[in-house]
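Handout, page 2. Input:
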Amino acid sequence: MQQQKGSGSEVEVTWEDQLNINKFGRLNNRFHELEDDIKIAKENNDNLEDASNELILSEEDIVRFQIGEVFVHLPREEVESRLENMKEDAIKELEKLEEEKESVLSQMAELKKILYGKFKDSINLEED
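Output:
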């Protein structure tokens, strides 16, 4: 049902519309959280790669390795193995975050179609 008010028209907001708007807001928040998490994951990957490169350049048989807040002395081979496992885990985590981000963007695009289709210029889902 449309009502004429002034120069524009207003469209009634149904319960389903409000649910879609709320869902879009939650997805948008999650999108920003994911972007932050992805940035951190990329930095972590870079740090692990740097550590791996430093280890290659090192000639030490026993290497200091940080576990939590403590440094321990470990054989070079064990540190290499641990770094490789950490890099693999970090890459998997980054891929998982990227996939979730794409899913969120897809859902947001679908909701934009629905909401802009109904509300046209009366709603703004774009970020400034």
